[in-house]
Amino acid sequence: MASEQQLTAIKGAKVLMVGAGGIGCELLKTLALSGFQDIHIIDMDTIEVSNLNRQFLFRKSHVGQSKAKVARDAVLRFRPHISITPYHANVKDPDFKVDFYKQFNVVLNGLDNLDARRHVNRLCLAADVPLIESGTTGFLGQVTVHIKGKTECYECHPKPAPKTYPFIHCIVWAKDLLFAKLFGDKNQDNDLNVRSSDATSSSEHAEDVFERKKGEGIELYGRRIYDHVFGYNIEVALSNEETWKNRNRPRPIYSRDVLPFEQIQQNGNVDKNLVADDPSSVSAMASLGLKSPQDIWSLKDNSRIFFESLKLFLVKREKEIGNLTFDKDDQLAVEFVTAAANIRASSFGIPLHSLFEAKGIAGNIVHAVATTNAIIAGLIVIEAIKVLQNDANSYRMTYCLEHPSKKMLLMPVDPFEPNKSCYVCSETPLLLEVNTHCSKLRDVVEKIVKAKLGMSCPLVMHGSALLYEVGDDLDEDMVANYAANLDKVLSGLPSPITGGTILTVEDLHQELLCNINIKHREEFDEEKEPDGMVLSGWTQSPVKEKDDNASINNGASASHAPSQAVSLEGKEDSEIEIVPVGTGSVLPGKKRKLLDISEDTVPYLSSITDETSSKNKLEEIDDDDDGDDVVMLDDGCSDGIKKKRLR
Amino acid sequence: MDGEELTEQETALYDRQIRVWGADAQRRLSKAHILVSGLKGTVAEFCKNVVLAGVGSLTLIDDRPVTEEALSANFLIAPDENNLSGKSIAELCCDSLKDFNPMVRVSVEKGDLSSFGGDFYDKFDVVVVSCCSQTAKKKRDETIECQLQYTSFEEAIAVPWKSLPRRMSKLYYAMRVIERFEEAEGRNPGQTSIEDLPKVLKLRKEVCEAHSLNESSIPDLLLERLVTGTREFPPVCAIVGGILGQEVIKAISGKGDPVKNFFFFDAMEGKGTIEDISEPNNGS
User: Fold this and answer.
1) Residue at a domain's end among A517, A536, A555
2) For chain A, which end, N or C, has fewer CB atoms within 10 Å of the first or last residue's CB respectively?
3) CB contact, 8 Å: B17 with chain A?
4) With an 8 Å Cβ cutoff, are B238 and A378 in contact?
5) Same domain, A121 and A63
6) For A129, phi and psi rounded to 5 degrees?
7) Measured between CB atoms, which of A29, A292, A377 is closest to B5?
8) Host domain of residue A348
């Protein structure tokens, strides 16, 4: 059905695919069938069992091998005479420079994270190569076209921060604080309160309650930890009346009220695990005879899992303690985190979750099906052919919906024009409000340049004075000099930064340069402006949280989910999060009306939660699978979408 | 829900999709039996999708030998193997599909759709037919999604055009005209070329008069694209095969209602539309 002109454009094209995962496998197949002859494909991942339900170019025997290479071999079987060049590498690798991108007619993204998407966007802009961007989650997906100077770039509008809901905080607490404290590196910073009541009153060098005392039995130790984190620490938090004025007060939970000591002693049947010599197969569920990961355990069962998994770590995996980091494929770790998060949830009156769900949240696991990826890949190829023919009037952003809106399941929308104040694709300076006498250069580099602007190899200049840079070929003096600068406050730098200064930051690798106007400000609101500085001109939307969430962190600022994490959506909310995007900066003729679902933000569509959980679900998508996340909806379709509800 | 728990192997393989539709839906999928007839690009995509999803069994009917055209949009057949073997399209596709998911039983049934009796069809939860004439489709009396409470395909296409919604997709009318033409001329589906256009336009006039529909509802250009563009376009196969797979999965898993009841996609405008075509008064 392709016309002669289309076939000519296809045959002469050289295309780069980034990602050989969920979307990537489908895309490579459809490109090959459509007649593309020269395809390059980058993916750093290796194949996992959980990929096989949709990444159909891979087989069980390929587990552990490079996705890019196996995908190439699989497609050459049915299209032997085309050229596919695989790269088993990170797209952020410095080998993939602007010159590398310049050889391609179009770049097609099938990625799974914000960071890599921003990186590729910048290199495509620098190389002036068209980019087609895509994402899916569950039955939702989108394809967008980004052409320098003609359509908006991927970063023209900030992506809404992930939405969050109370159980997430319980998971974050269980994983990043409690699990890390008990089994991880002891030297890592950890905000968990480790002082007991007798210690706070006495001395400075009070002992850490997490240290197991000499000769202390495992059951006693477990009970002491339990009572400290679920009982005592909650009491401490409750003692601050201010905190609870407008919030539901949590309930301290002590082991004696849930599980008498004798029962803790008889808790598991460790014998069942004796057969398993392999420490990685040890399971508290197995010892306790709990079978289904889909079940929601009672507080009592969660407590039994808590004690049993702690015991199994101490007995069976003693050697690993001190070096463990949470891994979603570590059964015992998932069991411990599920149980601890659920006990904490009980304390705060938050609905409990099954191990399956808790694992999904803790491991940032994507929701993905083959069909959506196949549809999205087809749409990418259709747009790619238009781009190759330079048919600018017919470019479309296309959304794949779960329920028809205005009779449409696949909804095309005209692309938006570039945002004239985008710091990435225009040269508009940013504004940074900061206390130049207090904030250090390190704070600016870490919290702004890296975290907000997404630069990985930054260079910071004030006029012609180089304040900071990274690179392999720097001489020692420079390295020492930059290290010293990082620890200086802005106004104390060799070339002082004060109000009115223009700071230049650049990432040579991404070929992105931007100027930041500095404005001095004395005071910052600790709660609303935790960075102690405010970047504007391009800002991340505020995280939406329920009021009561902050308290769940025990007053301590638990590390929140990573910034690229995704939000989960409430069942009671509309299916698609509607975030008004500031229209002030947008061309009057082409307003970006609607909604913006962040690309990593997608509604949680799963039915798994139908029976089980009541409330807002959130999900962090990304991480281990590619090509499976979404997106944004724009334009005139908002009405239809707004009305749609999760079933 | 009745039925066994999913095995550990199934839970591991299907983890990412169980997060979309739930364990009960996955169990129902694993008990479903699907029959497909006519393995061109779109159906090949569909087969891949349902095999990956983990249906119980998939039975393929397509006795045709492999031709170059059959290969053009079908990734289930490697070009070298067809030269060697005397296998049918269904047999070759079967070998590839088995490989995609060892937990699904994929098999071939020889014969023609019309040669099977009702008992045969009763074994299946869903039947998908492609590349056959309108008469054969009617005979089976299956809509492509085969939902009992939905209007049958025969009833749907018999609905008088003037009682259809006013903004009905033009593709619907155009495709009925092409079908009528192929039927009258004794052609196989897709066996048309630009030379047929004058006759097709003449037929359009007759059909539109019979239905009191303005001829402009079926633009010349659209008919021209339909008679000439008979080769499958792989991106469209992926999209239509994806939608078909997704709707069949919804139907058999009970997770969501399948679309009711026609889906149209035009790659030129990029729109994928749903039309409900049924007798206005039988209100199903």
Assistant:
1) A536
2) C
3) yes
4) yes
5) yes
6) -115, 135
7) A292
8) 185-323+327-362
**What is this structure's pTM?**
0.79
pLDDT in the model for residue A589: 34
B243 close to A (CB below 8 A): yes
CATH of the domain at A314: 1.10.10.520
Same domain, A604 and A578: yes
Q: What is the interface pTM, i.e. ipTM, of the complex?
A: 0.87
CATH number for the domain that contains residue A113: 3.40.50.720
For the sheet with A458-462, list strands across it.
A465-469, A458-462, A502-507, A512-520, A430-434, A533-536
pLDDT (tens digit, 9 = 90+) per residue, A475-487?
888 889 999 999 9
Same domain for A529 and A458, yes or no, is yes
- Number of domains within chain B: 1
Strand partners, B170: none
Query: Do the chains contact at A382 and B267, CB–CB below 8 Å?
Result: yes
Instruction: Supply the CATH number for residue B58's domain.
Output: 3.40.50.720
Give the C-alpha separation, A226 to A346, whole Å: 14
Is residue B256 a part of any domain in this protein?
A: yes
Q: Is the pLDDT of residue A115 over 80?
A: yes
> Could you tell me which residues of A are annotated as the binding site?
19-24, 43, 51-54, 67, 112-117, 153, 156, 422, 425
In terms of domains, do A12 and A64 share one? yes
Q: Bigger pLDDT: A647 or A402?
A: A402
Which positions in chain A touch B235 (Cβ < 8 Å)?
A: 30, 34, 377-379, 381-382, 385
Q: Which residues of A are documented as binding site for ATP?
A: 19-24, 43, 51-54, 67, 112-117
In the numeric block, which tokens belong to residue A180?
């890390």
Task: With CB atoms and an 8 Å threshold, state whether B15 touches A34.
Answer: no
> Residue B263 and residue A378: Cβ atoms within 8 Å?
no
Beta strands in A57-174 (DSSP E): 83-87, 106-109, 131-137, 140-146
pLDDT of residue A621: 34
CB-CB neighbours of A384 under 10 Å: 28
Domain that holds residue B236: 8-151+232-260
Give tens-digit pLDDT for A36-80: 999 999 999 999 998 998 999 999 999 999 999 999 999 999 999
Residue A639 clears pLDDT 50, i.e. is over it:
no
Q: Do residue A251 and residue A308 come from a single domain? A: yes
Q: What CA–CA distance (Å, rounded) separates A289 from A268?
A: 9
Backbone angles phi, psi at A28, to 5 degrees: -60, -45
pLDDT band at A270 (very low <50, low <70, confident <90, very high): low
Choose among A29, A50, A366: nearest Cβ to B75: A29
Distance from CA of A138 to the nearest CA of B (A): 6
Residues A147 and A283 in one domain: no
Count of the separate structural domains present in chain A:
3
Cα A71–Cα A74–Cα A75 angle in degrees, nearest 5: 85
A222 shares its domain with A299:
yes
Gap from A65 CA to chain B (nearest CA, Å):
17
